[in-house]
Structure formats: C-alpha cells, structure tokens
C-alpha cells in the first residue's frame, strides 16, 4: 500500500458525459501527478500540481482539467467523454518535485461506452 | 517529442540468472531518470531516482547506473528470482514532465 488513495476504483459511463476522478496523496506529499494508460499506449504523463499550483503539463486534452485543493487532494475532470478516453488513470504523489520517488495510487479504471 | 527507448522489449531467464536492461533517453536537458517496477494488476512501484552522471544506485539485488552524457541507464538484477517477474519502466524527466519508455517485461522461470 503506497498511501495514495484514488476513488472510484471503476467507473463506467457513456460518451459525452463528464466524470471526476479523485486522488488523496500520501501524508506530507505536496506534489500530485496524473497519468493515463490506454490499451494501445504506454503510461502518459498528464499534469503535475505542487502545493495547489500547476507545475507541469503533459499530453492533457483540453477536455480534461485538474486541480489541487488546499488539503492537497486532487481531482481530474474529464468532460465530453469519447470512447478513446477509456483507460486506467493513475495518480501519484511525491514530497516535492522531480528528484523524489513517486508513489502511485491503485488507479481508476474508466470505461466509456 | 522526446524519445525514451527500452530494450529488450521482453526477457525470459532462469531463476538464478543475472540480467540487465537498457533505457536510452535524450542526452540534453537532463533532470532525472526514474526506474519503476510494475507487476501485473498492480501500480508502478518506484525503484530508483537517478540524478547525476555516474550515479549508481542499489537496492538489494537490483542496481542501476546512469550515463547522462551518452543518454542511457542500465538496470541490473543479480540472481533473478520468480518474484522479480514484472515490467520495468524508465521515465525521463525534463522540465517537470515525465516521458516513459515502453518497458522491459521480465519473466523469471523457476
């Protein structure tokens, strides 16, 4: 158990809908990262937040947005969902930045029908 | 687009064999290289964070070396055990963004 929690574990929804994935980092960690793993692609970095501020942005679609709240939990919002958004979404946390180990949560499996 | 390559794609060894795999990355604008171990149906687990040229890290039977000038890192497993069977991923970190390789899948036969 990494200490990072993600909810929900599974999510099934329809095209065009909007969903919110939630992540609680390890106690004391200030950075949160979001990753996507699709069937036909490897692990893709989406976005990083540090202490409430966006720090780095990867291949995140405009339909997706994220935020980190004052209590350091983070949410990833996915809207106008398409079939291709079906994937495993991981959240990870680290004490600060890129020189720290990242601890991954169990992931949220999103299925868009 | 950054290119991070791992080789080989897969590896089958016998219990007790020592093995190594490679992660190649751009040699410019290096910040850090992360190694992860990823077992089926689980989440990636951090092994090492490599930050300096010539850096060598060790954790039990697993070690890693780094050459930032030529853009590669090696991961070594000494005396492989069946429980080492997993996919080993590297991630090149640059300007805060992580770019992952496709991984090397290791299968250790008893």
Structure notes:
- The complex is a heterodimer of chains A (113) and B (110).
- Chain A is mainly beta and 113 residues long.
- Chain A has strands at 5-7, 10-13, 19-24, 31-37, 43-50, 53-57, 64-68, 74-78, 87-94, 103-104, 108-112.
- In chain A, strand 4 (31-37) and strand 5 (43-50) form a beta hairpin.
- The mean pLDDT of chain A is 95.
- With 110 residues, chain B is mainly β.
- Chain B contains no helices and 11 strands.
- Chain B is globular, with a radius of gyration of 13 Å.
- Chain B starts with a strand and ends with a strand.
- Chain A binds chain B through residues 2, 33, 35, 42-45, 48, 55-58, 90, 92, 97-107, and chain B through 31-32, 34, 43-46, 49, 51, 89, 91, 93, 95-103.
How would you concisely characterize the structure shown here?
With 113 residues, chain A is mainly β. In chain A, 0% of the residues lie in helices and 51% in strands.
Task: Compile the SSE list and pairings.
The complex is a heterodimer of chains A (113) and B (110).
Chain A: E1 5-7, E2 10-13, E3 19-24, E4 31-37, E5 43-50, E6 53-57, E7 64-68, E8 74-78, E9 87-94, E10 103-104, E11 108-112
Parallel strand pairs in A: 2-11
Antiparallel strand pairs in A: 1-3, 3-8, 4-5, 4-9, 5-6, 7-8, 9-10, 9-11
Chain B: E1 5-7, E2 10-14, E3 19-24, E4 32-38, E5 45-50, E6 56-59, E7 62-67, E8 72-77, E9 86-94, E10 97-100, E11 104-109
Parallel strand pairs in B: 2-11
Antiparallel strand pairs in B: 1-3, 3-8, 4-5, 4-9, 6-7, 7-8, 9-10, 9-11
**CA-based gyration radius of chain A:** 13 Å
Overall mean confidence score, pLDDT of chain A = 95
Structural category of chain B: mainly beta
Helix content of chain A: under 10%
Global geometry of chain B: globular
Secondary structure: number of strands of chain A: 11
Q: What's the alpha carbon Rg of chain B, rounded to whole Å?
A: 13 Å
- Uncertain segments of chain B are none
Distance from N terminus to C terminus of chain A (CA atoms, Å) equals 31 Å
Amino-to-carboxy terminus distance of chain B: 40 Å
Number of helices of chain B: 0
| Order of helix and strand elements from N to C terminus of chain B | EEEEEEEEEEE
SS field, number of helical segments of chain A: 0
The major sheet of chain A is characterized as: 7 strands, mixed
Tally the beta strands of chain B.
Answer: 11
